[in-house]
Structure formats: structure tokens, C-alpha cells
Amino acid sequence: MILNSRACPDVMYINKGNSTCGIYAKDGLITPLDDVAAKYGWDKILKPSILTTCRYDENGIMGSGKLYGVTNYGEFVLVYYNKDWFNKFNLQVPTSLEEFEKVCEVFVQNNVTPMVIGGADRWPQAQNWYEFALYKADRKFITDFQLLQDDINFKGPEFSFATDKFLSFVKNGYFDRNSNGIKYDDANNAFYQGKYPMILTGSWLFGAVMEQVKTFDWGVFILPGKKYNTGSGGNLWIVPKNARNKELAYEFINLTLQPKYQTIMAEAGGIPVNADLDQIKDPKVKELNALFAEIVANDGLAFYPDWPVPGFMDALGGGLQNLFTGRMNKDQFLDSISNTYYDYKNMIK
């Protein structure tokens, strides 16, 4: 309603993806930015994998078509870990999924729950599940799934493996058994307090971890042994079609992409797209940006599992909650998310 009114702001910050920016683009509510991007050089600053979530076609599907949004940062999912817990049991950062599971098993054998998920908010479980799927995924599968291109088999190796692995982590006690009742913020706070050795979540938490964790040493690693990683460019600056001061909006967006302000973002624990990384002093921030740079260089961004169709998180996140408690079995879960996905895909194709 705001976007469709004369009272809309000149610039807005919105979620990327088919079910958000894609809908606004499809409905003609936001301004194409291709000419503006060429004028300011944004198309030279943003890497192709970052631009995927900035472009939308006539059906609102990301990856091609006009440029409707501009991001000024990146994000990805990774593991935050408590080095004190690892040192207590002489554990090293794992280099494969098998080693990661062995780390979890050592904690369980010593009556320590390895990981907490803010499952009450659903999307944290979805991201943990999707990380497992990426062990079996290739770029074609990711593109077909995310951009609604060729049909995929929800009972194929990717999502079958993810669901089996998710269930095994639940069964083995690698996730807190009360995760469905834990809010995301509460899960984060529990990690800050040293109650859990690990939490798998996004780089957006990095600044908070820097600020909140005072009683133990900590580090990060990506879930090891796979090429692709949950992540993308960040949320998008967009200019509403009815904006009255579009030129000022473009100038503002351009300011946020300049190295001076991008470097400030990096120093605060963000992942800029145009910073002078040599100016970063904090070794943890340097490590974070190096991990993201490696993922981008290897074309490793796999986006987020709830993006492809509107309302997909209801089926995916809700289904994982039911899977966690045994109210759904594997086949029921995969059938549920497949039906939601194809109901929408078949409607627009």
C-alpha cells in the first residue's frame, strides 16, 4: 500500500528475493535502475553473483531482467564457535562434514549439546537444512530451484540427503531438543553466554557477536567440504515508482557504495562490496571478509531456501518444525514443500 501511494518514501530498503522484491517489480511498483547503475558505475562495483538478487524478470523471478534493486553488502551462513569449548576437548576446526559430525559427537558424549537453533522462528531451521542440501547440489540444481527454471525432484539426492542429515542431527542430540520452542534472539543470547559451543547462522550476527561476547574466545568457519554456501548479496535499496525525488534517492544509494562508507561498514563487522579491505584492522573481520570473498570467487553463493516462491517458508519452516518433533515423516515433509513450490511455479509458467 505504501509503494502504491503518493506518500511513498523516495528510497526504501527491502528484502531481496522472488517473494518480496520480485513481487514489487512484477506489479510495477518500483523503478528500474539500469540506466542509473550505468551512470554511477554500480554495474562495475557489484559482482555478477551479487547482481543475481538485484534483477527480476516480468514474472518477478530473480536472476535476469531489469535491475530493480541495489545492495551495498553481502551475507552468508556460517558456524560461530566457542574456542574455549573446543580447546577443552582438544577439538580442531573440522574440514569435512564427517569431521563436523565427529566434533558434535564428542560434545554429546561429554553431556554438552553442540548446537542451538532458534527454531521457533522457523527460518533458522530452514537454513541449517539447506546447508546440508548443498553437499549434493550443483549450480544447475541451485539455479533451477531458485530461479524456477527446469523442474527439480524434491525427492532427489539434494533434499533427500538434507532431510536425512537434519533428522540424524535431531536424533543424535546435536541440536538442542527444545529448539522448536527457542526464539532466534534467545538462541543467540545463549551462545553469547557460552551455553552452547556452536551456532549456525548468518554473517549478519557477526557485529553482535563482536559486541556481546566478552567471556570467551570465538571464531567462525563455513560448514566444510562443499562448494556452495547459503548466502547472497544483501537486502536492496529500491526507488518506488511514485517517488518524488528520484535523483536524490540515486545520489543517496551511490553514497552508500563509496569506499569510505563501505570501509566503515567493514570495521563494524559487515561484509561490504566496495571497501578498502587493507584498512581493516580487526583480524576476525578480515577473516569474515576473506571467507565471503572466497565463496564469491568460486561462484559459491546458493541464495536462501525460502526465496523461490511466496509463502514457501510456511511450508518449509513449518514442515521442519514438524519433522523435528516427529509430526511429519520424511516423505510427508518433502511432498509438502514440493506441492507448495509447484503450485506457484505452475501458476506463473
Write the layout of secondary structure elements.
Layout: E1 12-14, H1 21-26, H2 34-40, H3 42-45, H4 48-51, E2 55-56, E3 66-67, E4 74-82, H5 83-88, H6 97-109, H7 123-133, H8 139-147, H9 157-171, H10 184-192, E5 198-202, H11 206-212, E6 218-221, E7 231-233, E8 236-238, H12 246-256, H13 259-267, H14 283-297, H15 312-325, H16 330-348
Antiparallel strand pairs: 1-8, 2-3, 4-5, 4-6, 4-7
Helix pairs in contact: 7-9, 7-15, 15-16
Descriptive overview:
The model has no long low-confidence stretch (mean pLDDT 95). The strands form three sheets. Strands 4, 5, 6 and 7 form a four-stranded antiparallel beta sheet that branches. A two-stranded antiparallel sheet has the order 1-8. Strands 2-3 form a two-stranded antiparallel sheet. Helix content is 46%, strand content 9%. The chain has helices spanning 21-26, 34-40, 42-45, 48-51, 83-88, 97-109, 123-133, 139-147, 157-171, 184-192, 206-212, 246-256, 259-267, 283-297, 312-325, 330-348, and strands spanning 12-14, 55-56, 66-67, 74-82, 198-202, 218-221, 231-233, 236-238. With 349 residues, the protein is of the alpha+beta class. The chain has two domains: 12-74 and 231-297, D-Maltodextrin-Binding Protein, domain 2, CATH 3.40.190; 77-226 and 304-348, Periplasmic binding protein-like II (D-Maltodextrin-Binding Protein, domain 2, 3-Layer(aba) Sandwich). It is built from 16 helices and eight strands. The radius of gyration is 20 Å and the shape is globular.
